[in-house]
Design brief:
Largest sheet: 8 strands, mixed
Number of domains: 2
Helix content: 40-55%
CATH architecture of the largest domain: 3-Layer(aba) Sandwich
Order of helices and strands: EEEHHEHEHEHHHHHEHEHHH
CATH topology of the largest domain: Rossmann fold
Mean pLDDT: 87
Structural class: alpha/beta
Strand order of the largest sheet: 1-2-4-3-5-6-7-8
Distance between the termini: 37 Å
CATH class of the largest domain: Alpha Beta
Low-confidence stretches: 265-284
């Protein structure tokens, strides 16, 4: 574990490698989602398999999340993209990396790929989309509900979550309520600068999209096919937005397949841990 100063904000970072003396053949950077999420969602799902497959795995808590610093303001998408870019600089990672983003983390990762294409080898969007005007409007509605239902009526909301989702989810929701209540996040994210269609189509690296078959985000697949030069969608039937934690082996296998295809045949012989060859049944 390390705390890294990323341009005036301290971010909590975890890093994993092969652990057997091998030199990692590529770096994968994992970016988590919003409010109830943290790097733990990767640490306990796909990160160990990625490290075992020979990758340098970088995970970090977004500003305001997990063990990272929680400033009272400064939560626009550009702030988060700045954090990611500065973090790579502080860690001395200069070459292209494989970016993996879950939910809001994918929007951050796509933003970096659009801003700095030379730093992006591939991009995986897990239940995620680029920042557009429609995305900003949707996020505004979601965050207003969080503030209204959770931050301003916390006891009743948490009691419902405990009953229907369990104590661990309630603990995460309590932290999310505090973040929404004590910072400008709820206002900053919907007000973020969004990408034009030209900026989206300018992303030329291979893009893997992983979606739950029961998620509304799967409806965006045709649009992404049209806008992105190399878009590779995977839809996992029977899953919704939490596909990363519900099907980590399948999700991780598809990500590893993408990275190997970009790095070439030498990026790792055989299927390896968590590969799609082992866990891809049911994907389409």
């Amino acid at each position: 574990m390390a705390m890294i100063d990323a341009g005036g904000i301290r971010l909590h970072v975890q890093r994993m490698g092969p652990g057997d003396g091998r030199t990692p053949h590529a770096t994968v950077v994992l970016v988590h989602g919003l409010l109830t999420d943290s790097l733990a969602s990767y640490y306990f799902t796909v990160a160990p398999a990625f490290a075992a497959a020979g990758l340098d795995v970088v995970m970090y808590d977004l500003r305001g999340h997990g063990r990272s610093e929680r400033p009272p303001r400064g939560y626009t998408l550009d702030h988060n993209i700045d954090d990611l870019e500065t973090l790579l600089d502080r860690l001395g990672i200069s070459g292209p990396v494989h970016l993996v983003g879950n939910s809001y983390g994918g929007t951050i990762a796509f933003g970096l790929a659009a801003r700095r294409p030379e730093r992006t080898a591939s991009l995986t969007l897990i239940e995620s989309e680029p920042a557009t005007a429609a995305w900003a409007a949707k996020m505004g509605g979601i965050l207003r509900r969080v503030v209204t239902q959770l931050a301003h009526n916390e006891p009743d909301a948490l009691a419902w979550i405990v009953t229907h989702r369990g104590h661990n989810t309630a603990r995460l929701a309590k932290s999310a309520a505090r973040l929404a209540r004590e910072t400008t996040l709820g206002r900053d994210i919907p007000a973020s600068r969004v990408l034009t269609e030209a900026r989206i189509t300018a992303v030329r690296c291979p893009v893997l999209g992983v979606y739950g078959g029961d998620s509304d985000l799967v409806d965006l697949v045709p649009l992404k096919r049209r806008l992105l030069t190399d878009f590779r969608p995977v839809v996992l039937p029977g899953h919704e937005h939490s596909v990363l934690v519900e099907a980590p082996g399948t999700v991780g296998g598809h990500v590893l397949d993408l990275i190997r295809s970009v790095e070439g045949a030498g990026a790792g012989a055989g299927a390896g841990p968590g590969s799609a060859a082992e866990a891809g049944a049911g994907a389409r």
